[in-house]
Design brief:
Helix 7 runs parallel beside helix 12 and helix 14 runs antiparallel to helix 15. The strands form seven sheets. This protein has a seven-stranded mixed sheet, with helices on both faces. It is an alpha/beta fold. The protein has 15 helices and 22 strands.
Length: about 650
């Protein structure tokens, strides 16, 4: 092996050999990694953007038929916008991860639909939505169409970056819908006539119509029969006067793993107004009925679940109060503590149900707590602000004015849960079994405890379903158009859509954004812009004042005293003209300086981000080389001294 030996004392030869071996090792590792570690990932992002939830993995593992996913992404869309570049990369990476985890059941096809190409025709035929790119007016596409083996189709017309936190949920829901194409069935239990309101000429409420667009809606009111097994979700709205058998049916439905959206109310303004209208219509014909009961609850079931809901108090919230106009000799606008406009800070931004809602209106709402012995966990979806006070429902008997409530307001400095998710194991409210008679036709086995964790959404208001609190009806060319001004119906649809999926899908949460701007840079940019804008505003005011004085002097030079005034004001006029020209020049300089300053700032930070890391690595490499060389010289000098 003499021909293979290397003089280890020759440090130059040794370092060249080390570099060659490092290059060979680097190429070998990359080749092996691409072949063996194609699906391996290391997610170092802040919100674990590229790590799939266990719920998504469960949905992908249960795909029982081939699904073809066609992603249409025009090349120019990510090129034009850094946000779209990050988002489109995340969409593609996520889909490729889906394919890997689906064990071949999911097939991904990616198209670049150029204008007037067959790919563009295919995108349009599948229902994708084009967006205008650049000044040329060309159409670009960033959407998806997925088809299962029975030609059921689901389409994302356009991937809106605003829904990026829900990307994993949306794609997982799409896959789940293709593997479970049947329209979900919603069973409706309600004491309010949502489907045919007599006060509206028996027209259905807008939220009722919207639910029917996405779900099969089946009314269960008045039925003592057990709830059919094909019902996926219960929508219980303002439940009043439910008998024992009906409560038992709900109890057993939940224990069998059923899901529910439950809306109860300490004071239903809609129900009370409807009852009073009916009394006015009957007055003089039959005796007037007694005072209507304004509240609703699931008392016995709530007690068994450990859910506490007070029916004698309402939440007054100054921080979320809607403004109303008081009529009178001098009309004025005041805050109405009982009508709440929930928005930023009161809607849970981490839950898929409420993360995209802009606002939501409630009226005379109650609140929820859990008892100590409850087996449930409660995750708030809707909360009040801390500027709250509990108001007795008995005050509504005298129809208090909003300004009277304001004068009595004393903040409890407490945030109340107005709507929430309930999850966990529950026990039956009927330990003795069905309250029905012995000759009942029920054949289903009585359950004492839920066979799976319950998934329930509760909200302490039912008025939010009424048209009065979230839509305006406008007449357009003889047709009535519903224009929403709050997201109440979106909340209902989101809840039902979420609960109609598997337990794995229900557990998914929203994620963060892949596009993370440099916040410090943005702050510096805003501060610089603010300084220049202040100077610009000052110059503009001085310029306007100088021009006004110039115009006044010109007007004085017109008329009978023109000959006298003109000579006296010539010097002043010329001075104002010079001042205006100087101000305009300085204004242009300020505007140019702003643009130059911002461009310089961008250039500096781009240079730092592009070159800082390589430069640091280079400096570190040089320092290490010097250290190694110094150590080698020390060892070599010792060796020479020992040798001599």
């Amino acid at each position: 092996m003499g021909w293979f030996s290397i003089n280890i004392r020759d440090w130059k030869t040794r370092e060249i050999a080390a570099i060659v071996l490092a290059v060979i090792l680097f190429l070998s590792v990359n080749i092996l990694a691409s072949a063996w570690l194609h699906s391996a990932r290391l997610d170092l992002t802040d919100n674990r953007l590229y790590t799939l939830s266990e719920g998504t993995k469960e949905v992908l593992s249960t795909i029982d038929e081939p699904i073809t996913v066609r992603l249409f992404l025009s090349r120019r869309i990510p090129e034009q916008n850094p946000q779209h570049a990050n988002f489109s990369k995340r969409v593609r990476d996520l889909l490729e991860n889906f394919v890997t985890l689906s064990d071949g059941k999911l097939k991904l096809e990616v198209y670049d639909p150029e204008p007037y190409s067959p790919e563009e025709d295919k995108a349009l035929a599948l229902g994708l939505q084009g967006v205008t790119m650049g000044a040329s007016g060309e159409q670009g596409y960033f959407g998806l169409a997925a088809v299962n083996s029975s030609d059921e189709k689901k389409v994302v017309p356009y991937f809106n970056p605003s829904r990026e936190p829900l990307l994993e949920y949306d794609l997982t829901k799409l896959v789940y819908s293709l593997t479970h194409p049947k329209k979900p069935v919603v069973g409706l239990i309600s004491s309010i006539p949502m489907g045919a309101d007599p006060t509206r000429n028996f027209r259905p409420w807008a939220v009722f119509e919207q639910i029917k667009q996405f779900f099969e809606l089946r009314s269960l009111r008045g039925s003592d029969e057990s709830i059919d097994e094909d019902i996926d979700i219960l929508l219980i709205a303002h439940p009043q006067n439910l008998n024992e058998k009906q409560l038992y049916n709900v109890d057993q439905f939940i224990l069998r793993g059923g899901r529910a959206l439950i809306s109860v109310d300490p004071y239903s303004e809609t129900a009370v107004a409807r009852a009073k209208a009916a009394e006015r219509e009957r007055r003089g014909k039959i005796p007037v009925a007694s005072k209507p009961i304004p509240y609703s609850t699931l008392g016995k079931l709530f007690d068994a679940w450990g859910v506490e809901f007070a029916t004698d108090t309402m939440v007054g919230d100054l921080g979320a109060a809607q403004q109303v106009t008081l009529s009178g000799p001098r009309s004025r606008v005041v805050d109405y503590l009982l009508w709440l406009a929930l928005g930023k800070g009161t809607l849970d931004r981490d839950d898929v149900i409420t993360s995209q809602l802009e606002n939501m209106n409630l009226a005379s709402s109650g609140y929820f707590t859990l008892s100590e012995n409850s087996g449930l966990t409660m995750e708030p979806l809707l909360e009040s602000t801390s500027q709250t006070m509990l108001i007795p429902t008995s005050k509504m008997d005298s129809q208090p004015r909003p300004d009277d409530l304001l004068r009595e307001f004393r903040s409890d400095d407490t945030r109340f849960t107005l709507g929430a998710r309930l999850h966990g194991v529950v026990k039956t409210a009927f330990p003795g079994g069905s309250p029905a008679s012995v000759d009942s036709a029920d054949t289903q086995e009585h359950l004492s405890e839920s066979i799976a964790p319950a998934n329930i959404v509760i909200i302490g208001d039912s008025d939010f379903l009424s048209d009065n609190f979230w839509v305006r009806v406008q007449n357009f060319m003889g047709r009535q158009i519903v224009v929403p001004f709050a997201g109440n119906a979106d909340f209902v649809i989101n809840v039902l859509d979420n609960l109609s999926g598997s337990d794995a899908l229900i557990g998914l949460r929203s994620r963060g954004l892949s596009f993370r701007p440099f916040l410090r840079i943005e702050d510096i940019r805003r501060q610089a812009e603010q300084r220049y804008r202040e100077r610009e505003q000052e110059l503009r005011e001085n310029l306007a004042e100088a021009e006004l004085k110039l115009n006044e002097l010109r007007e004085q030079g017109v008329g009978e005293k023109a000959a006298v005034v003109t000579r006296e004001n010539k010097v002043t006029l010329e001075a104002y003209r010079r001042e205006i020209l100087g101000l305009r020049k300085e204004l242009r300089n300020v505007q140019h300086a702003l643009i130059k300053d911002i461009d310089s700032l961008d250039s500096i930070f781009k240079m730092v981000n592009i070159w800082a890391i390589p430069l640091l690595i280079g400096i570190l490499a040089v320092v290490l080389a010097f250290i190694r060389r110094a150590r080698y010289r020390v060892r070599h000098s010792r060796y020479e001294s020992e040798k001599t």
